[in-house]
Structures are given as C-alpha cells and as structure tokens.
Amino acid sequence: MLCGPEGNMLWAGRRICYGPEGVVLMTGRHIHDNMRKAWITNEYKEHLWNCATATTLPEFNHRMQQFSSFDIEAYNWLKQIPPQHWARSHFTGRAVSDMLLNNLCEVFNSKFIEGRDKTLITCLEYIREYMMKRIYNFIKVQKKCVGPLTLSATKIMEKNVNWESQYTARWNGSDKYQVQGTWQDQHVVDMVERVCSCMKWELTGLPCKHVIAVLNDKADNGDEVGELHTYAHRVHWLETWKAAYVYKVEPIKGRAMWPISECPIKITPPLHKNQPGRPKKKRRQSAKVKSQKKGDNVASGSGSQSHIASGSGKLTRKFIQVTCSKCKIKGHNARTCKGQGGK
Question: Which backbone phi and psi does 17 adopt, to 5 degrees?
Fold first, then answer.
C-alpha cells in the first residue's frame, strides 16, 4: 500500500504492482478506478492520463495546473500519490519502458484461469504445458520477422521516421543539436550521452523523431551515422528477443511413469472446506466495467430502454406494458382489473 505525505495509508486493500522502475506502482487504470468513486465523468480520466503520459517535467506541471483549474479537490487527491509511481515524466528510464499499465502480468493471469482451482501438481502441469505452447508460438513469430528490431519496435520506428521530415536540426559545433519542429516543439539532442530533452529516447530506448532528424542532418553533411537500429537499446533488437526464448520447457512422461518418492514421510494435503455456492473463476470487475456493460445493454435494447438484464443475457419484464386479458386495456392485468372496459 502507498502512504501519503503525512504517513496516512491511502488506498488500503487496492490493487498495486511493481512498475517499470522496480518500485511499487499503482497503475493509471487503478488510480482512475479509485477516482471514479468521487469523480465519475470522463473529463477526470482525460486529465489524469494527460498528466500520466507527459514525458517532461514542464509538461507534467502544466497538465497538473490545468487539472487544478478544472477541479481543485480532485487535484489535491491526485497530488498525494507520488508521481514517480505513475507519471512518465518522473521515470528514470532504467527499465527502458514507459508502460503505465500492468498488462504484462495480466496476460498471464488471464491464461491461468482454468488451472487455478486444480490441485497443486495439476496446476503446475497446466502452467508447464502452457509455457511450452507459448514459447513455441513465439518462436514461429520470430522466424517470420524481417529486420534487426522486434515487431513492435519496428512499428514505432517507422512512425518516428514519418514524423522526422517536419523537423530541422542545427548543430552547435560540438556534440549537441537543437531540433525544431511545428507547434513550438523544440528540443536538445546529445548524441554522446544519447539523450533527448523530450525524454522519449531514455524512456523507451528507441530514437525519437528528434534523434532521427539529427541523424539525417549528419548524413547530409557527410558524417558516418551507421544503421538506425544501432541507436536503439538492445532490448528492442530481434536477436535479444530470440535469446529470451532460447531456453525451452522440457516435456515429461505421464504420471504412470513418474518415479516413486523415497521420502519416508507421507505428505497429505491440508483439510479443505468447500465454501457455499459455485466457486468463482472470473476476476472481479470494477464499477467502471460493470457500468459500461450496463450501458451496452441499454444501447442494444429496442427503443430507449433494454429488456436484457445486466450481465445475464435474459429477457426481463421491465419497461413492458401489460395488457389486461379481460378488458383488453393496457396498464394492468386481469388480477387487478376493476372493469375499466365496461364489461
């Protein structure tokens, strides 16, 4: 759990994880889930993500100032959370990642749903077989890759190359360049330290559009710049990706051929008491997800209302006007009919 500036423990019991900097991180989505308890509209979400995605301190301070002008109470609530846990502008770049979500662990969490309620050995076997299949699938994708970088890194680099034509680089006669573009986008690139004042080169490990503009300027002046991928961090190289999957999960024989343990003590499983009701496998949904599903049901219904119960997929009698079988008048049924039709 995180602590406020005065030692008060905030967001107790909420979901937290380890972020790219190796410190406790409350992801932007979970911060927004907590924020929705008091501030519901999408404007608050937009202000939160504008602050979280800012890569420089001046931009972060400007976004926070805009948030304070929008709602000072929500701004004071967000200000209590240390920004190094959720804002890109305060990341050091040590992890070579600017991710603000914990999707890396969520993808594994979603795959292990079927094996959670199994016994220990069966659960471990499920995980082992899943890892065998996952490594094999990634090896097939890697064999189809063409180029020195991974697929995601290649897409980002192509996007940066397309933006490069709108920037002009000016050399200071030493190791630094001033790169100027549209909308007062001006930054300083140090080619020796391999840093850019926009912070994206340090955060992601990939040359930003300002760096690519400098490389093109150096190439136009006859300097040898080498291949573009050499300016990317090695974590984005295809050979690094392949090295991560060089270790394989070995197949094993069936249980009938497993050796019998020589341990003299027979380990018995702990006593288990079945809880009432059917055991749940799906993750608990946040209030935001539930409200979105409810909104989708309303939108998919006939007219302005829906007859589908939220999350059940069954038809309900809500918003349906009944017709009396006696007098044929709408608004009541035969049990409550008082002869409105005159019969």
Answer: -150, 180
SS (H, E, C) 8-40: CEECCCCCCEECCCCCEECCHHHHHHHHCCCCC
As a whole number, mean pLDDT of residues 52-78 equals: 96
Distances (CA, A) of 89 to 94, 132, 158, 200, 232: 13, 38, 24, 10, 20
Lowest mean pLDDT among 73-87, 114-128, 197-211: 114-128
Contacts of 18 (CB under 8 A, 6+ apart): 24, 25
Which residue's structure tokens are 């249980």? 255
Tell me the two tokens of residue 218: 């150096």
Which amino acid type is present at position 15?
R
pLDDT in tens, 232-271: 999 999 999 999 999 999 999 998 999 988 888 887 878 8
Tokens found for residue 11: 């967001």
Sign, Cα dihedral of 223, 229, 235, 240 = negative
- C-alpha 119/C-alpha 110 separation (Å) is 18
In whole angstroms, what is the distance from residue 198 CA to residue 182 CA? 14
pLDDT digits (tens, 9 = 90+) for 165-212: 899 999 999 999 999 998 889 999 999 999 999 999 999 999 999 999
Which tokens sit at 260? 């019998």
Q: Does pLDDT of 127 surpass 90?
A: yes
Q: What angle do CA 306, 309, 315 make, to 5 degrees?
A: 75
Among candidate residues 57, 326, 328, 89, the one with its CA nearest the CA of residue 203: 89
Q: Output Rg (C-alpha) for the chain, integer angstroms.
A: 29
Mean pLDDT of 45-67: 96
Task: Judge contact between 126 and 134, C-beta under 8 A.
Answer: no
Phi and psi of 164, rounded to 5°? -60, -30
Task: Supply 155's token pair.
Answer: 């897409």
Residue whose tokens read 């992890």: 95
Quick one: DSSP state of residue 7? Answer: S
Q: How do the residues of the chain divide into helix, strand and coil, expressed in percent and rounded to 5?
A: 40, 10, 50
